[in-house]
Amino acid sequence: MRHVFPCPLRWSDMDAFGHVNNVVFLRYLEEARIDFMFRLARQADSESFTGGSVVASHEITYVKPLKHRPEPVTVEMWVTRIGAASLTVAYEVRDRAGEGSTVYVRASTVVVPYDLEKERPRRLTDAERAFLKEYLDDSATGVGAA
């Protein structure tokens, strides 16, 4: 299963070349990830990811320029790896949900659950692991995929 997040484009997202700036795509990914971890995960279990999380790395492939438009883009997001103390999510930023729509970006992010009080990484809880498994698809990495 994939998390589908409609993300509005803002006029300020454009750069001098008239398309969405490359760094803005990281914000789109962040918005989808926040919705996934702080809304969906907490709906599934009120304690999921409440201790915090940090980004360990991003990998992003820009497939096609995106020009500003009034319609939102769709960020599809899924889990590609669940470790003991980290997870990897993949994304596609596209026109609309589903195959056949234009893909602008493919990306992945390694996320580490973090204990804010102790200021150090922590292991995934059983509830977090169960939630993530619903979105697990390790056959499609998101980056560089055709």
Automatic annotation (TrEMBL):
It comes from the Bacteria. SUPFAM superfamilies: Thioesterase/thiol ester dehydrase-isomerase. InterPro entries: 4-hydroxybenzoyl-CoA_TE, HotDog_dom_sf. It holds the Pfam family 4HBT_2. Gene3D superfamilies: Hotdog Thioesterase. Signal peptide: none annotated. This is Thioesterase family protein. It comes from Streptomyces glaucosporus.
